[in-house]
């Protein structure tokens, strides 16, 4: 599905915190239809970069283009409306709602008609059918009536992805999707990301290098706020500068 057209481009992206440059003149180009990973040792600037791209932070310099449009000055909600969506943090999943209800709320948000939604039983039925479908897609078919708080950590992350998919993103940004996961969850979420990416673009920050190796078309390695290397896994993992950067991490 990958083609050469960039969907998300960062040019000279820079972020300074009180004189400390956390992200320093980063150029990044994510091709449409690919899975692109942002990696690097602790403190490399991955999270800052991610927050800049999703507009949770305002850059000190540079610009960000989404489908050719300059989104540097936009708010996260405006960027989301364009189809560039960051996966919800776990805290954004309503713990006491069931999986189905959580996805329904996301669908409601996407359609933006909350009043009709809560009023009409037939509308509710349509949303619930779609919500059930999305939950099945992420492997939560058996858990649609389970409250989020009762789901395992890995299944909560899957629910998070389902609520993100409900917003029908063209491009998904995943912040450490494997963080805190056990082996089985990692396998399940890896397969899920691959499926999700079949007709979408994915950019993820991820620490787990075997997951990165398995999923990524392109990897950008950051160190000290700068791009150290870029390419496929075979290319970057054999790069001596990358190996050096990871030593002592
Ligand atoms: P990574 O995600 O790669 O571990 P971060 O983007 O979290 O790296 O951090 C990069 C550098 O920027 C670190 O040295 C960190 O201490 C610093 N940093 C991040 N956020 C802030 C902040 N809000 N204020 C000051 N320094 C920050």
UniProtKB/TrEMBL annotation:
Answer whether the UniProt record assigns the keyword Acyltransferase to this protein: no
Q: Which keywords appear in this protein's UniProt record, sorted alphabetically?
A: ATP-binding, Nucleotide-binding, Transport
- Record domain ABC transporter: where: 8-249
Is Nucleotide-binding among the key words of this record?
Answer: yes
User: What are the GO cellular component annotations?
Assistant: plasma membrane
List, alphabetically, the Pfam families matched: ABC_tran, BCA_ABC_TP_C
Which Gene3D superfamilies does the entry mention? P-loop containing nucleotide triphosphate hydrolases
- Put simply, this protein is called Amino acid ABC transporter ATP-binding protein
Organism whose genome encodes this protein: Prosthecodimorpha hirschii
